[in-house]
Write a structure and sequence with these properties.
It contains 7 helices and 6 strands; from the N terminus they run βαβαββαααββαα. By secondary structure, it is an alpha+beta fold. A hairpin with a 2-residue loop joins strand 5 and strand 6. About 5% of the residues have low confidence.
Length: about 200
């Protein structure tokens, strides 16, 4: 599937240029295959775009402005709908593409629908099973994310305890250690005075 982005290479509008750059830059960052189709230099591209933008999506004057985005022959939207999808972390759904494994969108799709392969749900479940799977997944996430910091904290506390132990294997703070040393130094002096 190739995403088609209709744009105008020689637009006089800086707003249109910025919108086009934003769409193309984001698609490149996501490594999505796309074909930029110029409507300024190619009359066929301009006519195809105008004919295939749904009537309800056309502006009041009837002429849609670039950028307009299609997945093959299927209309995805204009810049505003692209921007909304970007803000909602739903660009792949907007483009009609399966999200790549490990992406935020893929994780959300998995939690909502279960495993997805090539854009289709695998081993679909009913609502009760979905809820159980979601709860189990959340528990796994909580367990995995909490285990590592807890283990690190425990190891650090053990190391600090080992450092703080004195000769009699009792935990001792620095202040207590200094006080003990002072008492040991004063003890021989008092013995001499008592004699």
């Amino acid at each position: 599937m190739v995403i088609k982005v209709f744009l105008a290479s020689s637009s006089g509008s800086t707003a249109i240029k910025k919108k086009q750059q934003d769409v193309l830059g984001f698609l490149e960052a996501l490594k999505v295959d796309y074909a930029p189709l110029d409507i300024a230099c190619n009359e066929d591209n301009r006519m195809w775009m105008r004919e295939n933008v749904p009537v309800e999506k056309k502006p009041t004057n009837g002429i849609p402005l670039p950028p307009q985005i299609f997945n093959e022959e299927s209309y995805c939207g204009d810049y505003e709908t692209f921007f909304d999808a970007k803000e909602d972390n739903a660009v792949y759904a907007f483009l009609g593409l399966p999200p790549p494994p490990g992406s935020k969108e893929a994780k959300e799709a998995y939690l909502e629908n279960g495993p997805v392969e090539n854009g289709t749900i695998v081993n679909g479940t009913d609502d009760a099973e979905d809820e159980e799977n979601l709860e189990a997944e959340e528990e796994n996430i909580d367990d995995d994310t909490l285990k590592a910091p807890v283990k690190e904290e425990e190891a650090q506390e053990e190391a600090e305890d080992e450092e703080a132990k004195g000769e009699d294997d009792q935990p001792v703070s620095e202040e207590e250690e200094e006080l003990r040393q002072l008492e040991e130094e004063e003890a021989p002096e008092q013995e001499e005075e008592d004699e």
